[in-house]
Amino acid sequence: MAAGRAGTIDGLRGCTLRDEPMSRHTSWRVGGPADCYFEPADMQDLALFLAALPAGEPLLWIGLGSNLLVRDGGVRGTVINTGGLSALEWVGGGRLRAEAGVPCAKVARTSARAGYTGAEFLCGIPGSMGGALAMNAGAFGGETWAIVERVETIDRSGTLRKRERKEFDIGYREVRMPATEEWFVAALLAVQPDAQGGGETRIRNLLARRSVTQPTGQPSCGSVFRNPPEDHAGRLIEAAGLKGRRVGRAFVSEKHANFIITEDGARAGDVESLINLVQQEVQMRSGIRLSPEVRIIGEAQGGGAARG
Questions:
Q1: Domain presence at residue 166
Q2: Quick check: is 223 catalytic?
Q3: What is the pTM of this model?
Q4: Which residue blocks in the chain are alpha helix, DSSP H?
Q5: Which of 58, 103, 131, 153 has the fewest C-beta atoms under 10 angstroms from its C-beta?
Q6: 224, 292 contact by CB (below 8 A)
Q7: Helix (H) or strand (E) holding 90
Q8: Which of 53, 84, 115 is at the close of a domain?
């Protein structure tokens, strides 16, 4: 089955689109088309789809598209959006099972409303659980894998597995999988009873604090660069005089220098050029080469794979 012909699979219930603009599925609102775009109805639908794909079909997994820059030439192969993997349920003993498409903020609020603590930091992560698991996303001093007890994965053949936390090598904004071509589809999270109460109030306070320091309500990907050891990317960018710096319809936020904002009419090329400019200017001033936290994928406009 070639890319884009997933609709020929008997029994498939999910949404399948051909040449789907990725600007509709990324928080920067930029990005060229995907050859094939698929959003499964549920886990079984995903397994059916994967089992029918050719072995060499390139795959890109996305959630809310908040940590992703898709180049203007688009994505060859198939994009799988995990939004349909939306189950969120208590399984007893302070254990909350969240599928990959569940927004992190929803996990935070569900935990707090049930009288548990430990997941409040997730309210500050603008993506879904699949991406948070893949990169050990963090906010407000917390990290995703600090509350992970077990995960569920799926491979290219559609085989589902349960894996323990100890099977993964976990670092700062990085998680190494025990097998290649295996992807997160759910996690079992361990949270604690909130003896003092007030979890929902803490979440509101965290979000209020974020709105003061970060540009909420504008198209961005969240933090663009990883914090280097013993420093902060935002401080280094601001010290280099780059707040407000612009390339095309993309600019460095005046509110928080580790955010890049896009305006109507922006292109992925504007954003990538600005990322490169920030790296160069910061390195010239401080000697530190900032590493992008955002994933940059796809082809530059006009074809030919660009360097990521």
A1: yes
A2: yes
A3: 0.89
A4: 43-52, 104-113, 129-135, 199-213, 233-239, 268-286
A5: 58
A6: yes
A7: strand 88-92
A8: 84
In a domain, 246, yes or no: yes
How many folded domains does the chain comprise? 3
* Eight-class DSSP state of 206: H
Q: Given the residues 150, 163, 173, 226, select the one marked as catalytic.
A: 173
* pLDDT tens digit sequence for 101-141: 999 999 999 999 999 999 999 999 999 999 999 999 999 99
In this structure, what CATH number is given to the domain that contains residue 80?
Answer: 3.30.43.10
214 contacts 223 by C-beta, under 8 angstroms: no
pLDDT value for 179 = 83
**Could you say which of 99, 120, 152, 293 is catalytic?**
293
How far apart CA 126 and CA 75 sit, in angstroms, is 23
Residue 127 domain-assigned (yes or no): yes
Annotated catalytic residue, options 223, 253, 267, 272: 223
Q: From residue 126, how far is each of 19, 176, 289 by CA, in Å?
A: 26, 22, 25
Give which of 70, 106, 56, 109 is closest to 85, Cα–Cα. Answer: 106
| 156 belongs to a structural domain | yes
Please tell me the distance from the alpha carbon of residue 162 to that of residue 196, in angstroms, as a whole number: 33
Same domain, 99 and 178: yes
